[in-house]
# Entry
Amino acid sequence: MTTNILILFLGGLFGAILKYANLNKFDVISAQSHFKDNTVLKTIILTIGLGSIILSVLVGLGFASFHIKPFFLGGIIFGGLIFGSGMAILGYCPGTLVISFGEGSIDALVGIVGGLTAGLVFTYLFPSMQFVLGDNLGKISLLSLTGDHKVLYFILVFIIGVALIYSAFYINKKEKSLNRKWIVSGVSLAILNAIVFLKLTTNRPIGASTSFPYISDSIFNFTENDYFSKIKTPGHWEMIFLLGAFLSALIISLLKKEFKFILLHKEWRKYKGSSVTKRIIWSFIGGFILIIGARMAGGCTSGHIISGGMQLAISSLVFAVFVFIGLSITGKLFYKNNQ
# Structure
């Protein structure tokens, strides 16, 4: 019970941090897909840069452990492209879905239903998908690549971390944006992730997408299979974590009198029109695609790109590249004034 309360609390902090800078909003994420607004990109880069330095120090002192995701080449590449495409269409990632639902976004709820459906389908298809996912190339990271040269490792971590932090501020300078909330959220996310990694707390990375097949498989009692056995523990953890994020968003929205049921957001209306049916259909499709891609790759924005990026895991960094390729290509094609 105590552990579940801690996870719920950490999830609440996660929800509050993303909500503070509007990183969960459809308008912000969809705008990122065609580089109209780089708030998401700046925040992720800052989080990884600062987080990689903090986490490496904690691991070096023995206060935390790395949890590197394995590198399945097909799963990472195809999963990344599919995930990025789903993220562009839906306008949310797995973690921000529940936060936006907590604010009253109906399209986020539809996306959740699509994601839960995808989780059930993926569990069923998993045994026959190994040829697509490819061979396990191992848990490769900067630490494993530098071997026993710990001094070299920490030097490289510091250089890479500082370079990423500089890149985030450089992008912001080019945008000439006066909004500084992304900085607060980026720093806060790096610290929160590091806290979650601590052996004294949960000794694992933050994640979100595993909860979707876990919940749907549990609902339909589709649990007597190898895939559910594999995801049972992380899926349960992420379910409680996301519940905390949902409750946090709901409470904050109610207290600030911002809670509002909404289906058609400003950016959607601008590019796709005012058809309710169209938004519902695309929200379901986007949610379905999003979770299929995440499960193929073994993680999502929070669990792979941010948590894995902070560990400088090669699988996570490659996944991030292909997510943004899928996101930008789909965003460019999908968000046109072709109502």
About this structure: The chain has 16 helices and no strands. Residues 145 and 165 are 23 Å apart (CA to CA).
